[in-house]
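Weekend entry, working from home. Most of the wet-lab plans are on hold until the incubator is repaired, so I used the time to fold the two sequences that have been sitting in the queue since the last round of cloning. Logging both here for the record. First:
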Amino acid sequence: MNWVERFLERLGQPKEAPSYEALAKLCRAHLTTLPFENISKLCYFQQYEQTGWYIPPIETYVANLHDLHVGGTCFTNNSTFCLLLQQLGYQAELVRFDSNHLGVSVQLPTGWYYVDVGVGSPVFAPIAIPAGGEAIYCGTGIRLLPKEDVADALRFQHITHGEVTLEWELSLQKGLTFDDFSEKIKFQNTPGQTFFMNTLRCKLWQPDRGRSIALVNNTLMIRTEDGVEQKSQLPDQQAIEEVIAVEFGLPKLPVREAISVLESLDIDIFAPPKQAE
């Protein structure tokens, strides 16, 4: 079985001819099966001197989907998803942002579409570009809007309970390669520079249970379809591992190893948040 077949097997999806409907099924399966997490990112960072990469080769990534229940953050999840789509016959390309993010655009007979399985938002179906649209579930998500007077860019808004909490610029430049993101990937893996190098993070969409579930350090957050959020503090590493195994359904995810990496960087995920001065 090659890596494409194993990737589809992990997603629980058959191999289908490219279409909007097939693409939407792949997006939804990815977001509801593979976590948006930095646990594997921290482990890959620790192994960098031996491997020479922060994002694994596609064969290693797909093996770890099965063996470690990993997903990744944006650069890992979206770059590997783009490779999968290309192998399935889609015209898929990487998308650049002014912020530290990477997305994917796909050309179908009806036009270009944006997909994103690495932003921690419920982009369950492709969004037409440049027309735009939104993807909201459990009170959170993203919105794409045309950018006034700029033909080759879009506004990419993060939405929480109807309010814009963050805005990026998405470039419609074509022909980008993975190497074009090397500096951003290096920055993303520099301790002390980004959120994902100083925290423990895991998120998964569970529409079959009417909710999304997220872990940030030792805080567990469950949002339901009506936007209600429940928070609880997990007391220790064992409790985190149990939640990841039972509530997330990812018992192989290397939580203990990731916490150890953070500890080596002098980060205590159980420390109370610092109060703003």
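Second, folded right after the first finished:
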Amino acid sequence: MSKNYPDIIRSTSAQMAELRTGIPEVSKGFTSLAQAATRDGALDRKTKELIALALGVAAHCDACIGFHVQALVRANVTRAELEEALGVAIYMGGGPSLMYAADALAAYEQFAPTASDT
């Protein structure tokens, strides 16, 4: 059974919107943290998203994979860049990360179906 990453992030976004109404200050704080952490600095945004994806793979988080792959596609990540980051995630996380790395590649194909290997 294949996971549908656009549906996963759509559903998770709706659930997070509901959660934000109950804990708005926490949500604002997390949003500020995310914006600060992913802003261009010594590392560019794409590199930071690749790190976030690798951590999402290692944590076995489907929604994290979906959100970060979508952000990477928007940042014009290449399949080769994605695969190298997934290789590091597999190295650090072992067999379970291998399974989620395969899912991350499927997410990439869903968000960027016409993406080239360049």
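Plan for Monday: verify the second prediction. The domain at 5-111 is CATH 1.20.1290.10 (AhpD-like).
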